[in-house]
Structure formats: C-alpha cells, structure tokens
Amino acid sequence: MENYGISKQQWLEEFLELPNGIPSDDTFRRVFEKLNPQVLEEKLTQWLQQLVESVVSEVVSIDGKSLRGSYDRNQGVKALHLVSAWANEQRLVLGQVKVEDHSNEITAIPALLELVDITGAIITIDAMGTQQSIVQQLQKKKADYVLSLKANHPTLHSQVKNWFELARATNFEGVDLSYDQRLETGHHRREKRQVWAIPVTAFGGLHQQQQWAGLQSIIVVERVRHLWNKTTQEIQFYLSSLPPDAALNGRVIRQHWGIENQLHWTLDVTWREDQCRVRSFHSPRNFALLRRIALNALNQETTVRRSLRQKVKRAAMNNDYMIQVLNSFCQA
Measuring CA to CA, which residue among 152, 117, 116, 112 is closest to residue 132? Predict the structure, then answer.
C-alpha cells in the first residue's frame, strides 16, 4: 500500500489531502489492526444494497471459507473463517460475517441473513445450514430456499432416501412429480444429471414436516460423471420451498456452485487469499472485506473483456481505468 501510494502520490492528491505524504506501512498496519470490522461490514453492506439491483428471484448462495494463512501459532489463533452471501447473477458479494471461535456456520448464517436484504431471493446453503430455525428466518424475510439434506438429519434423510428408492423401483407409479435431465460435456468429462422434484404431499407426512416452514418440494439429483479413467455416481437430496419444478430447482442447485467457482476460487487464484499471512488483531477480517469489495468493483466493470487478474494489473497501472472501475461500481 505504501509503495502504491508513493508511486501514485501526485494522482492521489487530486482526491485526498496528504500534507504529510503517504503513510508508512506501519501506519497502515496499525489502522487495519484496530479498525472495527463488524462496523465496517455493516456500513459497507448498507451502502452496497443501495447500489445493487433487487435480488428478487435471484439465487443467493451462502457458504463459508477459511483464510488458511491467517492463523498465528505463537498466539494460539486459528485461521479466520468467514461466511459470505453471493448473488450469482449480479456476481456480487452482498455481505460477510465471521464464524466466532468455538462455534460453526450455524451461528454465523442467521447473523448474515439479518445483515443483507434477501427479500424475494432464492437462498441456497449446504447441509451445515439446513436447520429449522434458519428456514423459519428465511420465510420471515420472504425468501425462498433450496437446502441440501444429508445425514446430519438422519431420520428425515433416511425417510426421503428409502421413499425415493422404493418409488424409483416401481417407476414412480401413481406419483405426480416433475422430471428434468441434462447432459454436459467438457474438460474430458461427460456428466448426466437427472432431477426429480417431488411434492411433499407425495410422502404422506415427513419427519417434523411442520417445522420446515414453507416446504413444498423434495428434490433429488443424480449425477453420473464419465471421466477418462472412471465413472462416478452420486445422489443428493434437497429441501425446497419452490414448487415441484425439476428444471427450476435443478438450475438453482447448479448455480449454488457459483460461490465456489466465482468467489472462493477467484479469491485464492487472483488475490492469493489463502497465502496471505496478514494475521494480527482485526487485520485479516478487514483485508478480506477489502478483497471482496475489489472483486465486486471489477465484476461491475464490463467494458474491458479480460481476466480479473489482467483487470487488476490494468487498474494498478492506468489511473483512468481505475476511475472507470470505481465509477462502474458506484453507479451499479
């Protein structure tokens, strides 16, 4: 930061008063160590929500990510773990919340849902967030959901799994359901996806069904992947507040991976987040937020069709392009 400031001091003075020149690296370090990240996250999230378009009917994925390099062995500090909300179509981070020490994502997700406006959105969360209290919160905030159902709810999971296997063996005779099939090829791989969307009424009463507010459908996805050296098969189950439409629910489930491919992977490859050894006090959390703001800004600038890494370099070298990136984000 200090080197960038020194290199761009004349340009920065057009916007900032710098009577004492560019602050030193120690000054930057002390500021980010002491800056309250929770207040910063709240203020920036509120500002962002005034700029972005509505998320009605948009898939908003929620998932966690650890900053692997943020641990401090000498101080006994574990790596920082953050939960983020990602708007897939707009390619924007809507907010982030820290997972507190000695806790897990179950406690962080409700705090994140209170931080961002998800009215009308379709929320996707992996099995960790498939909790009755979270479902009730989503319905209270007028959002739909598609949540992964795994063995952390053993009774419900077994009931759905056994029903599906029996119904499939009889070719779903007498069951009114929706079915969709997709075939994709690429990267030396062929994947066949089958999706069944089954109304909850077909099950004749699920375990604690009344506790899953707004539940309309059980979604079953079977993926068969043909690789060059092997074939794999997996079946996954989902709880959905959407109507039993296989094509719609299948698209939503597919888009959930956007948070991994377009957010987490990008942070590690473009900004090398996992390799960053910033680890003192509040610095890791504040720098994580800055990376996500930068990602948002670059995603909103669409006139330059280059990779994010090339856009980062161009913004660093070209003052006019930096202004263009900032304008695109502020006017999003």
Answer: 152
